[in-house]
């Protein structure tokens, strides 16, 4: 038997917990420990006491994994929120820049024809494309102006900071 098993057996026999200090007992034999009680056959009880008193490692590992899981879940939510904000930027960017890109492609294919028309005294591009150029310029300005609106509508942290700076700040 190991020393821990002997201590546990002694605790069971004297009705005390393994962590409690032993009470003063009479020792009639000349040694510090009565060896006649060791061979009582209660070693299985000793093992149970030792196993109950030590915390299981699986529970510690499970708690550690739960904390990591919660941390990863929070981080994933933050990253998902950032992805939504960036998707909002991209969507607005594409909607505002699409007319300009289409006009640039149109101009690329009709530039030679437009230069020939101008050389003969006619207008180079059709009226609809001249109007669309002004509309696309307005959309480009709106694209720059809507970035703050996207931040405010999709990011709660940005809204809080915005309110703190502009509404409550001095």
UniProtKB/TrEMBL annotation:
Task: Give yes or no: UniProt keyword Cytoplasm.
Answer: no
- Would the keyword Cell inner membrane be found if you checked this record's keyword annotation? no
Q: Where are the transmembrane segments?
A: 82-101, 131-154
What are the protein's UniProt keywords? Membrane, Transmembrane, Transmembrane helix
Q: Which residues form a coiled coil?
A: none
Gene3D superfamilies per the UniProt record, alphabetical: Rhodopsin 7-helix transmembrane proteins
Write down the SUPFAM superfamilies for this protein, in alphabetical order.
Family A G protein-coupled receptor-like (SSF81321)
Segments for region (Disordered): 1-40
InterPro entries under this entry?
GPCR-Ligand_Int (IPR052954)
Record-given protein name: G-protein coupled receptors family 1 profile domain-containing protein
- Record organism: Tigriopus californicus
Lineage at the top is: Eukaryota, Metazoa, Ecdysozoa, Arthropoda, Crustacea
